[in-house]
Amino acid sequence: MSTRIEGIVGRYAHIEIDGKPHRLYFEEAGQGIPLLCLHTAGSDGRQFRAVLNDPLITRHFRVLAFDMPWHGKSSPPAGWEKEDYKLTTGAYTDQIMTVARALGLERPVVMGCSIGGRIVLDLALKHAADLRALVGLQSAAYVERYYESAWLNHAEVHGGQACGAIAYGLMSPLSPDVDRWETVWHYMQGGPGVFTGDLFFYQVEGDIRARIGAIDTAVCPLYMLTGEYDYSAAPHDTEAAAARIKGARVTIMQGLGHFPMSENPDAFLDYLRPVLEEIRSSTK
Amino acid sequence: MIERIAELVNTDPAIMRWGRHLNDAFMVEVGGDQYLLTVRAGRVEAVEKGPLVQRAWRFAIRARADCWEKFWQKVPAPGWHDLFALLRRGDVAFEGDQRVLMSHLMYLKLLLASPRKLAP
């Protein structure tokens, strides 16, 4: 009998973020161009397990996925019990650049999904020269509030079950059950109020519509990949954003939903590999 | 389709387990047709078709008949595969006690999607 042990290595980095010390968990695999992956609201870096395990990607890319503070294996900062967690655009962008610098990543490619797909647009505006390329998954400039996220953090509602049910619906009915339910599990494990705190950025504060016209894809190429079954960052939301960004390249991914890398890894990798290959051959 | 929800749910422990703490009645409206569902510990005890007079319910989920028809396809098209997809467009309305609805959201999603098993 031989046990399959993945090549992914997980470690903790001690990094000061937003003026507070953090013990941040991150995973990595591969060598070459740094590819920093940003998970969705209320989840963690396990969503990128298939990208980290893909030999066709890791032979040219050093793939990294960190758990945001408050998420996954990255605990909240000291004193968390005295405050509500609330993500904002400025803090999120600073966090990503701080982590990239702390890990010594030189001009990384940054790929984010959902809230991560939103923040790559802000990274494109503020840090284009420091980044090799950006990949927005389920990327939209704004999504208006269509349900009350306060129910996801309520004493009389099981937060884990409610967050899981929200995530469940955003996936494609064509995605494999095992991967869909694992994606739901990650959501069910989120800390109380964390998904709601991320949604503050996604549904309230992080409206980037007025600014995206200034994105210069000649400085930093921008790829936008969106699953057709997503109704949160729906294909029409991505296309509306891309229509205002000269040079943005859009791919609508058939049969995928809001969590492409996690809900149907094989189908997603078929879309991602050519994008990464293009980035590798056309950028420096 | 909805008339058979009781047998679809009650023979599927993977759905029933999500509703084990739900003991209530709720209304589902398919266009002009009312259906009052009574659930006891995740088991659908009754599906009563209206018109109903002065019956109590905890929450109601209402959509046009053509919306439910698209929702109940074996493999629904994008935008018709989840209650919240309809909610974002305003094609479904949630009324009544949202706390109870949100407490049992996974159960309700699975229960209301169960007629897809009957689709050709």
What order do the helices and strands of chain B follow? Answer: HHEEEEHHEHH
Strand content of chain A: 15-25%
CATH class of chain B: Alpha Beta
Number of domains of chain B: 1
Strand order of the largest sheet of chain B: 3-2-1-4-5
How many domains make up the coordinates of chain A?
A: 1
Give the biggest sheet of chain B: 5 strands, mixed
The H-and-E topology of chain A, N to C, reads as EEEHHEHEHEHHHEHEHH
CATH architecture classification name of chain B: 2-Layer Sandwich
Q: Helix amount of chain B, in percent?
A: 25-40%
Radius of gyration of chain A: 17 Å
Q: Considering DSSP H and I runs of 4 or more, what fraction of the residues of chain A is helical?
A: 25-40%
Provide the CATH superfamily of chain B: SCP2 sterol-binding domain
Q: Would you give an account of this structure?
A:
- The complex is a heterodimer of chains A (284) and B (120).
- By secondary structure, chain A is of the alpha/beta class.
- Chain A is 35% helix and 18% strand.
- In chain A, strands 1-2-4-3-5-6-7-8 form an 8-stranded mixed beta sheet, sandwiched between helices.
- In chain A, strand 5, helix 4 and strand 6 form a beta-alpha-beta unit.
- The longest helix of chain A has 18 residues, at 265-282.
- Chain A is globular and about 55 Å long.
- Chain B has a 5-stranded mixed beta sheet.
- Chain B has a single domain, classed as SCP2 sterol-binding domain (Nonspecific Lipid-transfer Protein, Chain A), CATH 3.30.1050.10.
- The chains are: A alpha/beta (284), B alpha+beta (120).
- Chain A binds chain B through residues 146-148, 151-152, 154, 156-158, 161-162, 164-166, 168-170, 172-174, 228-232, 234-235, and chain B through 18, 75-76, 78-79, 81-85, 87-88, 98-99, 102-103, 105-106, 109.
